Amino acid sequence: MSKVKIITGTSAAAEAARLCDVDVIAAYPITPQTTAVEKLAEFVANGELDAEYIKVESEHSAMSACMGASAVGARTFTATSSQGLALMHEMLFAASGMRLPIIMMNANRALSAPINIWNDQQDSISQRDTGWIQMYAEDNQETLDLIIQAFRIGEHEDVLLPVMVNLDGFILTHTVEPVTLPDEDAVKEFVGIYEPKHTYMDPDRPITQGAVGVPEYYMESKYDIQKAIENAEDVILKINKEYSEKFGGVNGNGLIEEYNLENAKTVFVAMGSICGTIKEVIDGLKEKGEEYGLLRVITYRPLPTKHIKEALKNAENIAILDKNIVLGMDKGALFVDLAHTLKDKKTANYIIGLGGRDIKPEDIEGIIKHAENAEDGETKWVGLNQ
């Protein structure tokens, strides 16, 4: 039987891992992720979760431990943030290259220098080419929902890749919201027992994992990862539909969410918790008879370009909001990634909320006014103290 708890985003992530009955957790504390693994340690200590909890000396070691566990067939989970995710960089490539379906919660936080513990999405965006599936939650409920689905997605025989579920640091990680926890037995039935779909390490049947990729084979391994990420798009749609039918309360299709797009000529494109603020502004303007829309990107890797293009077919002005910056291009990563897909549309890019800078409803309203008169391809930094 489902129940509602008033919990933080990190607690929602921990509850999701518990409901999925993970076998191994390896993690290292870092603000604002720490409370997630503290909660998991509590579950293990209290006997609420039968899992091996590995205390390691760094995030690099955490991912290494998860890889070893996953390679022998264990369902694994970890969590990190910012500099911790950056320290994992080397091992993120190894995890995807070895086709290990590790699930990780990342609490989005700015990268130093200068040192900053507040939210933007630069950390996960910087890992976009590591071969991990990336998903972005709007709220605490979606954090739980996406992590549960992530185990099915990553472990699917057509995918077999690690999945990173991102939630905005402090904005979600430390804010309490009502979260509906599905029935534990129903979740276990949904995710099933993890049975590796490829040969895994076994003393009775020795194999090689992470071998040297000589030129004759290396390129093919990367091609296989590319195809697996492409496969993930249909898998995400299928699993999201199944999850929605079983548990309800899901916004979007797992790839994108369309919000008030039907009659909107000016449309926002964004990821994460900022979308809640955008929706409030859209709703307020709708009451005044003004129509604006939002295309929320839930899955960033694989980037569902065909779905995005179809959803925005009637839009005339597209404002792409990025809580990151591609230094040297004066653009955000989401804008850069969508530039070709939306080449026939008028688009403008808005760099917003870096380092935890407040994003207010009036900022969103200002973007609307600017976008309607912006030059195609224009970049505007919103909220600069200049």
Automatic annotation (TrEMBL):
Q: Where is the Pyruvate flavodoxin/ferredoxin oxidoreductase pyrimidine binding domain?
A: 15-240
Superkingdom of origin: Archaea
The family database entries (SUPFAM superfamilies) matched by this protein are listed as: Thiamin diphosphate-binding fold (THDP-binding) (SSF52518), TK C-terminal domain-like (SSF52922)
Q: Which GO terms describe its biological process?
A: response to oxidative stress
Give its E.C. classification number. Answer: 1.2.7.1
Q: What's its catalytic activity?
A: 2 oxidized [2Fe-2S]-[ferredoxin] + pyruvate + CoA = 2 reduced [2Fe-2S]-[ferredoxin] + acetyl-CoA + CO2 + H(+)
In what residue span(s) does the Pyruvate:ferredoxin oxidoreductase core domain sit?
Answer: 264-364
**GO MF entries:** pyruvate synthase activity
Q: Does the keyword Lyase apply?
A: no
| UniProt KW keywords | Oxidoreductase, Pyruvate
- Does Oxidoreductase appear among the keywords? yes
Pfam families recorded: PFOR_II, POR_N
Please name the NCBIfam families in this protein's record.
Answer: PorA_Arch
Q: Assembly and interactions?
A: Heterotetramer of one alpha, one beta, one delta and one gamma chain.
* Protein name per the record: Pyruvate synthase subunit PorA
Which organism is this protein's natural source? Methanococcus aeolicus (strain ATCC BAA-1280 / DSM 17508 / OCM 812 / Nankai-3)
